[in-house]
């Protein structure tokens, strides 16, 4: 027997190890084995293979496609085309919101649609613990991409975003201490969730202070990139990883 093998819903196979054992024998003839699946827990063999591959312990190539990326590449537009429904940004946002709200828990939604395996083995930190550890008194600067904004040509969107950055974000950036190091954390999304930029001041005792947050809702990737670069370029003595989300 020869040919490429695709193991669909790999994380839900009763004995993935046995299936892989049989399939991988074909690779000696140049065949390929592909595992396609949503996650089924952090301790599942599927997640272990992904973790080992990213660590360079296995030769698999990992391709992560969450619901936000699928939508950006036309998933909902295609669904509308096939089902003969009109597409609109509002309908797309409502469709995604319904998908997420219909799941039993937020953790289930993150696992099913955002490639985040559910925690197990006592490693999960409860929300109450995280909230007690969180301290923040700085302002939250919010920008929401309306349907009208998203329908504009990119050059016009860029001008609108620049005006908001200059008017709202720049004055806060100018208050940052110039003698201290700074870095930035990001939680990246597109339309179903917020993209959040969290600049951090690194104090002399190595503790971090978050002077402000920037929240972007339903903002196209180019304008998210524009906001990110605007902030990072103005952080005093900045330190950050230079890859954009999704790059390897």
TrEMBL record:
InterPro entries according to UniProt: P-loop_NTPase
Extract the Gene3D superfamilies matched here: P-loop containing nucleotide triphosphate hydrolases
Q: Mind telling me what this protein is named? A: Phage terminase
């Amino acid at each position: 027997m020869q040919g490429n093998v695709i193991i669909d819903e790999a994380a839900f196979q009763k004995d993935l190890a046995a299936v892989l054992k049989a399939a991988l024998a074909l690779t000696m003839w140049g065949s390929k084995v592909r595992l396609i699946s949503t996650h089924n827990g952090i301790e599942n063999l599927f997640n272990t293979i992904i973790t080992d591959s990213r660590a360079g312990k296995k030769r698999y190539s990992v391709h992560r496609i969450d619901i936000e990326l699928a939508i950006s590449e036309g998933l909902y537009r295609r669904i509308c085309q096939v089902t003969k429904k009109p597409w609109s940004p509002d309908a797309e946002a409502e469709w995604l919101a319904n998908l997420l709200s219909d799941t039993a828990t937020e953790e289930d939604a993150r696992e099913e649609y955002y490639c985040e395996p559910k925690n197990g083995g006592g490693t999960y930190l409860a929300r109450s613990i995280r909230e007690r550890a969180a301290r923040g008194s700085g302002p939250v600067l919010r920008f929401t991409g309306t349907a009208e904004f998203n329908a504009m040509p990119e050059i016009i969107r860029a001008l609108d975003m620049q005006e908001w950055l200059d008017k709202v974000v720049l004055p806060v950036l100018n208050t940052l201490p110039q003698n201290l190091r700074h870095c930035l954390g990001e939680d990246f999304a597109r339309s179903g969730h917020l993209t959040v930029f969290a600049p951090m001041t690194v104090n002399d005792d190595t503790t971090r202070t978050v002077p402000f947050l920037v929240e972007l809702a339903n903002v196209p990737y180019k304008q998210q990139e524009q906001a990110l670069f605007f902030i990072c370029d103005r952080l005093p003595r900045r330190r950050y990883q230079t890859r954009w989300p999704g790059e390897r």
